[in-house]
Amino acid sequence: MIVDSLLAGGAERVAVEVACALDRARFEPHVLVTRHSGPLEATLREHDVGYTILGRSRGFALSKLRRAHKVARESDLIHAHKLGSNMWGALLARTSRVPLVVVEPTFSGVRTRQRTFGYRYWIAPVTRCIICPSQRVATSLEEEGVRPELLRVIANGVSPDAAIPRAEARSELGLAPEGFVVGIVARLRTEKAHEVLLRALAELRNEGRELTLCIVGDGPREDALRRLAAELGVEEYVVWAGERRDAKRLAAAFDVGVICSDWEGLPVAALEILAAGVPIVATRVGALPLVIDDDAGMLVDIGDDHGLAAALGKLVDDPALRRKMGERARARVHDEYSFDGMVTEFEQVYDEILGTTPGKPIDASR
């Protein structure tokens, strides 16, 4: 597995958690981290999964390429995640002649020269399969010039029973045992649009609604967002919980979850909140409209803080509606977005590429 870092982002968590869950009778995972470590390193250690951290920064270091090449040469298959690591995967597939699978988790809606060149001319010519979490992401790559026969949709999946009880989760997050809590789990990056949620919070507080916002995650925009919360006069109603590798355990702490991103593929955080029986208010991006479909939560337009406030206000005021949506949310994730099912589909891709038979180990002598 190749990932940029071991931060607890959605794509990184998919890579690490799949590596940890593979059938060890048939597969021996090793995670190659091109940049730096993070909270997910502890997950790898707990599951006895080997890993190599290159620690690269800007520029090109021949010594780091040699280390990566050694890992690749000792592998039967390379599985890379996200554009940056997919570019590395394509390089290593060329130099080691080891087959490559890549995952593209999202699409911003705007084509870039780097993405177009990367997939059409560098990654697609050597990869055996490009996995996407939704048809929208797959279509975006086809529009970039990727051959459709390389594309395969495998939806993200989550464990349906990962969430711990509400009271325990609130204690871990530093939240009061009672009171209405809106939660968001997302890296503090521009595309996650936390400022929209902060403005919606200010509007709801000004209307007299009692609620707290819990922000799980960290990132480069934290200082700017803290300043905005102070300017809006809501800093005392925001709990900054920081990055959590175990965020899926804590989802039941929320009464309502929010995904207010400008773009997404199929966010793991959304599925984990829904799996805990918590409805979501989300922007109409990526696969979220298909997942929520207006009966497991509510949809709003991108950047619409007033619309977000109105949707949240409706859920604050209507406990019966929250319960109804939460029940539908839990059932949908259980039926359609299984973590075990996702892992099985990944293993099926490996079997197809390696020419192996399910239930039998790879022939290491070949």
Can you offer a commentary on this structure?
The two termini are 21 Å apart. By secondary structure, this protein is α/β, with parallel strands linked by helices. The mean pLDDT is 94. The longest helix has 18 residues, at 319-336. The chain has a 6-stranded parallel sheet, with helices on both faces. A 4-stranded parallel sheet has the order 4-5-6-7, sandwiched between helices. A 3-stranded parallel sheet has the order 1-2-3, sandwiched between helices. It has 14 helices and 13 strands. It has helices spanning 10-21, 40-46, 62-73, 83-96, 113-123, 135-143, 166-173, 194-206, 222-232, 268-275, 288-292, 305-317, 319-336, 339-354; strands spanning 2-5, 30-36, 50-53, 78-81, 100-103, 127-132, 151-153, 181-185, 212-216, 238-242, 256-259, 280-283, 297-300. The chain is globular, with a radius of gyration of 21 Å. It folds into 2 domains: 2-157 and 339-354, Glycogen Phosphorylase B (Rossmann fold); 166-336, Rossmann fold. α4 (83-96) packs parallel to α5 (113-123) and α8 packs parallel to α9 (222-232).
Short description:
With 366 residues, the chain is α/β, with parallel strands linked by helices. It is 43% helix and 16% strand.
> What's the arrangement of strands in the largest beta sheet?
10-9-8-11-12-13
Structural class: alpha/beta
Residues in β-strands, percent:
15-25%
Distance between the termini: 21 Å
Return the CATH architecture of the largest domain. 3-Layer(aba) Sandwich
Q: What is the name of the CATH class of the largest domain?
A: Alpha Beta
Number of helices: 14
DSSP, total strands: 13
Biggest sheet descriptor: 6 strands, parallel
Task: Indicate the low-confidence ranges by residue numbers.
Answer: none
Return the domain count.
2
